[in-house]
Design a protein that fits this description.
Elements lengths: L12 E3 L6 H7 L4 H7 L13 E3 H15 L4 H7 L8 H7 L4 H11 L7 E8 L4 E8 L8 H18 L8 E4 L7 H8 L4 E2 L5 E4 L11 H13 L10 H12 L7 H7 L4 H10 L4 H17 L6 H7 L5 H12 L3 H10 L1
Length: about 350
């Protein structure tokens, strides 16, 4: 059995939600998802919790392996079609709370590391066409040829623009570095146009003015998202403000947004009003946030594939030393001691 990397090793993990719909899609194509996952070092149980973190290389390989084994050239695009905005979890909240489509995409790029730290984005102008380009950048090894994963990322950008603009916008052009892996008909069916293959970047080009227009009904979308992901269900009349904040923070902390203004915005209240209501119930926002972080760090430490440095980053700490001090305060043990104890248990 290969040795597991040490906590100090560089190790990148992504949310299991990245494979949402994977098993069903493989089955519809006559394949065995367990066998494909197993060939990549994963098991079906790994996909049960969308918030679990999995090795990024294993997730990427599973998608490429499925396309190869099943002979489905557009597997990545089909998988993307099964993944809605809710697949992004709280990242979707950030995107849908923006005032414009462009700002939503930029905020998504800013926080995408909480969903998939191997990805980042950059924008630039194409002077010859007058279009604004968004390039998706991957931190996977440069020698890795994974066109299915690349197409998922680019297709998902197209889908987000379509959803956020309620169908009013679409990219002027889609760019891919690699050669086609599917037919022209498949690309047109999934993307609405034929990408420019052999391009200098992976991403999209869009009218710079059009996607700066106000996002249609973004407040309504945000409220629906808050009810679904932050509160779980509409709170009853007797639900205390403390319980509402506790429920919201349990999710906001996962996005590094566990501050008072974010919690107040999620609950449609002014920060000072929310603070007064908490005080009236004998609660303090800082203590509720601390409790949310304490609960989440215990869940993260139970996942051996996550390095301590990555856990510190997910919690919004400046470095691993801050995580160590927090664990000593919460549990009276260091993160390594806690992790060792959970493995023995």
């Amino acid at each position: 059995m290969p040795a597991k990397p040490a906590d100090s090793a560089v190790m990148t993990s992504v949310r299991a939600a990245s494979l949402a719909g994977f098993e069903d899609l493989v089955r519809t194509q006559g394949g065995d998802p367990a066998a494909i996952l197993g060939a990549c070092g994963l098991v079906p149980d790994d996909l049960a919790d969308p918030e679990r973190y999995l090795p990024s290389h294993a997730v990427a390989l599973a998608i490429e392996e499925a396309a190869c084994v099943l002979g489905v050239q557009d597997f990545g695009l089909r998988l993307c079609a099964r993944q809605g905005v809710e697949t992004l979890g709280l990242l979707g909240l950030v995107i849908q709370s923006a005032p414009t489509v462009r700002e939503g995409m930029m905020q998504g790029g800013k926080y995408v590391h909480f969903h998939n730290p191997t990805l980042s984005y950059r924008t630039f102008m194409a002077p010859d066409e007058g279009l604004e380009c968004v390039e998706v950048l991957s931190r996977l090894p440069p020698h890795a040829h994974m066109p299915q994963g690349t197409e998922i990322c680019v297709a998902y950008m197209c889908r987000l623009i379509h959803v956020l603009s309620e169908g009013a916008l679409r990219p002027s052009a889609i760019h891919l570095r690699h050669a086609p892996v599917g037919s022209s008909a498949q690309y047109r069916r999934h993307l609405g146009q034929l990408p420019r293959f052999g391009s200098s970047f992976d991403g999209i080009a869009i009218d710079p003015l059009a996607w700066r227009q106000p996002m249609p009904r973004h407040n309504r979308l945000l409220q629906q998202f808050v009810e679904r992901f932050l509160l779980g269900a509409a709170p009853g009349r007797n639900t205390s403000v403390t319980d509402q904040v506790r429920s919201a923070l349990a999710n906001l902390v996962r996005m590094g947004m566990a501050d008072l203004p974010s919690a107040a915005r999620a609950l449609s209240q002014h920060p000072r009003t929310l603070q007064r209501r908490l005080q009236a119930e004998g609660a303090a926002f800082e203590e509720l946030r601390d409790s949310a972080r304490r609960t989440w760090v215990a869940q993260l430490l139970a996942q051996p594939e996550l390095s301590l440095g990555h856990i510190a980053q997910l919690l919004g700490y400046s470095d691993q030393a801050v995580l160590t001090r927090a664990c000593q305060r919460w549990f009276g043990q260091s993160p390594r001691q806690l992790r060792h104890g959970s493995r023995e248990g």
